Amino acid sequence: MSDFHALKISDVQALTPNSVTLTFDIPDSLQDIFSFTAGQYITLKHGVNGKEVRRAYSISSAPSSGQLTVGIKKVPNGTFSVYANESIAIGDTFEVMPPEGRFVFEADNVKKNVAAFAAGSGITPIMSIAQTVLESHPENKFILVFGNQTPNETMYLRKIQELQQQYTDRFIVQHLYSRSQEDNALFGRIETSTVNFIVKNKFKEVDFDAFYICGPEEMINTVSNTLKKNDVSEDKILFELFTSSDTEDALAEELDGKTQVEVIVDEETFTVTMDKKELVLDAVLKQDIDAPYSCQGGVCSSCIARVTEGKAEMVKNQILTDGEVAEGLILTCQAHPLTPTLKVDYDDV
């Protein structure tokens, strides 16, 4: 389940002065394993400065393209993002986990109107989703609201313009720039007024089937809350965080004692004794158990497991639905054990 596969870089392209795309060569023997749904991500594992680093990056290419491409924006002082933008070359090999993620669009034969709000590098999964929406039905419409500092820093700008030419009446883009005044673009950031302008003014006649939101946590919360105030049902709103604000772990302060945890990974069973103040994933990794994980910050879904005995509570959860939590699913990177014994199964998810 958590197996990585060695893949070579087949292409490296600069998108902006501070972002690149990496395309991976997928051997015939791994084509099925690395097939993906629009919106999913892959986890990369690589040694940087003598230390193993894992990072999750959304796939920007459409499933129909036959390519596996991710976009990476340089983060100031970022370990892997700086390395990716400055040092990676064609022919380099990386350990890559098969695609996963729930922020997806699954194509069917039903006409759909879809809108997306993206800021900065949040555009990467939206690129895959937009292309898939547009090509999957001749009447599908996609509205993109895309915020950046300047056009020069806008990832995939050329590809977006190409899609606009290809789907003139069905792919409509509203750019926003916070540091540049541009023709046919709004000035500022994506905020409440932006959402209201889109749904109550510019596209008030459009009945949207889904809204995809990707970017900083504050922007996601603003867009989501504004859509709900405009009577958009929660099941039509999908979002994915790339980074999350720090959350104080007050729960850990309330816990005392130890828990014996039985862990099932790849059909193997391990036993770990841990302090309840620890997070389950941290305790598992300390024992060199090869549990799946990526961000360790509660913003991806790599570390999901099912509690089959005992109880655990998450510090924060922005991924699992209430129904999934009720069924016993947890983000192990956010979960503290509450009972003397706990059984978690990474295979049963």
Automatic annotation (TrEMBL):
Keyword Calcium: no
CDD domains: fer2, PA_degradation_oxidoreductase_like
Keyword vocabulary terms for this entry: 2Fe-2S, FAD, Flavoprotein, Iron, Iron-sulfur, Metal-binding, Oxidoreductase
Residues covered by the FAD-binding FR-type domain: 2-106
Cofactors demanded by this protein: FAD
Domain 2Fe-2S ferredoxin-type: 259-349
MF term (GO), any: 2 iron, 2 sulfur cluster binding
Name this protein carries in UniProt: Ring-1,2-phenylacetyl-CoA epoxidase subunit PaaE
SUPFAM superfamilies associated with the record: 2Fe-2S ferredoxin-like, Ferredoxin reductase-like, C-terminal NADP-linked domain, Riboflavin synthase domain-like
Organism superkingdom: Bacteria
PROSITE patterns named in the record: 2FE2S_FER_1, 2FE2S_FER_2, FAD_FR
Entry keyword Calcium: no
